[in-house]
Predict the 3D structure of the following.
Amino acid sequence: MITKLALGELREFKSKNQAKALRVFVRFLAERNLLLPEETEFWLSTVKVPSQSEGGGLVEFYTPEELTRLLRKFRRRDERLYYLIRLGIESGLRRSELALAVSMLHKKKYQTEGEVSWVVLQKDNKTKRAFYCFCLKETADYFIRSKPYVSTVVLEKYSREHGIKWHKLRKTQATYLARLGVSPEVIDYVQGRTARSILARHYLNLFTLSLETMKEYLSWLKGEVYSHLP
């Protein structure tokens, strides 16, 4: 029920009361052990109560058409920003983790299988984790070849000057992974939310599932977004 409600009608919620009701329902299921802890964390982190200033959207994410317009805007104006936006939507990383991933790519610390490349991050600061940066080989090749300077300061500057919402790119990835039928456990792993206890027991399985999942997601992204760029 919650899967149908959350995925099928997520964008229809417009009020605080509707968002609050769904969060209460998630907690109700969790208290009765009808949801796994990681599923509960996923839904509570995804379903946010909109503030008055937000105008009502429950989960803020880009449509494929909006992503195409955003990328088209910067493709020739700012190549570094163009590929950073691509890296953000492909990997779903937080802003600070994007800078770390670019640094690792500069050092050529990455692996590739087919059209997908990945960087081992293994970042864990207790509250926020990041295990891997998955992206298209073409995106990784740009950062390896051009070695553009990237830091959290640079990313913050892009946010201020161009209105780039890195967290919105992250939410977009999670939203479309869910729409592709990916399990909450794998989405949590890709986005660095997997609990340590689960990670210790299922590390290899989660990585294998995540790699196959990202192949499917990145193929979808190429077809629905990148193929419409000039």
Observations:
- Residues 196 and 203 are 10 Å apart (CA to CA).
- The first strand starts at residue 111 and ends at 113.
